[in-house]
Amino acid sequence: MNQAHESRLIVGISGASGVVYGVRLLELLRNAGVQTHLVMSKTAELTFAYETSHKIDEIKALAHTVHRPGDMAASISSGSFRTMGMIVAPCSMRSMAEISTGVTTTLLTRAADVCLKERRRLVLLVRETPLHTGHLRAMTALSEMGAIIAPPVPAFYAKPTTLEEMVDHTVGRTLDLFDIDVGITHRWGEQDESRRRPPERSKLVTNTKRESP
Ligand SMILES: Cc1cc2nc3c(=O)[nH]c(=O)nc-3n(C[C@H](O)[C@H](O)[C@H](O)COP(=O)(O)O)c2cc1C
Predict the structure, then answer these.
(1) Whose CA is nearest to atom 14 of ligand 1?
(2) pLDDT tens, 7-55?
(3) Which are the contacts of 173, defined by CB distance < 8 A and separation ≥ 6?
């Protein structure tokens, strides 16, 4: 019996601000031995260039398998390719809107659609502000379909002192949704014994540009 799908996770990175969330996810999942299937939209490559000072190949090297956003024949476009589900981090309003309608034009949104139809876990780190009613309606529809809407909103009770700690908290809580504990989450009521020594960050995460357009 092949149980490989139990450690397979799709990571989508779309063109919203916050590419660092996707990068950190890939890094932590690699350390945790999870087989990641990355699909990055064309605009995500643009935001990556704006928000970091690294080469796109460096992020792709963190994934087990990289799929082109236009490759509709990729493994992850079929429900017969079993996975634990998918995280889109960050998730743009454009990709979110496509996923909410089922009218999918990219591999990223198709793979998310597959997770919904197969009743697999789909977590969307939607990022935009402020939100109009159309955005909010799309989020409601997605939640009704079983997706988890998880905007990357920082938690100040963890008393973060760096941007990296804020990112780690959000990423740790996202992985909680898949029962993956990489020891980076500050858990309320458990004090600091719940946190193990955090896995080291690559330069991709620590050396992000501070300014955003
Ligand atoms: C630097 C930059 C930051 C952006 N930030 C956001 C954002 O936070 N949220 C969003 O929904 N769109 C944002 N956009 C716009 C999206 O990239 C755009 O809507 C694009 O068509 C999304 O396509 P995708 O979902 O296929 O990546 C941003 C664009 C750029 C260039």
Answers:
(1) 16
(2) 999 999 999 999 999 999 999 999 999 999 999 999 999 999 999 988 9
(3) 150, 155, 185
Its domain, for residue 37, covers 4-195
Does 130 sit in the ligand 1 pocket, CB within 6 Å?
no
109 lines ligand 1 (CB under 6 A): no
Spell out the residues 6+ positions from residue 116 whose beta carbon is closer than 8 angstroms to its own: 99, 122, 145, 146, 147
- pLDDT digit string (tens) for 50-108? 999 889 999 999 999 999 999 999 999 999 999 999 999 999 999 999 999 999 999 99
Residue 209 is assigned to a structural domain of this protein: no
Helix residue ranges per DSSP H, the chain: 19-31, 42-51, 56-60, 93-101, 107-117, 133-144, 163-176, 203-206
Residue 62 DSSP SS3: coil
Counting the structural domains of the chain, the total is: 1
Query: In the Cβ-directed half-sphere of 161, how many Cα atoms lie within 13 Å?
Result: 0
Is-contact 99 22, C-beta < 8 A?
Answer: no
Reported pTM: 0.92
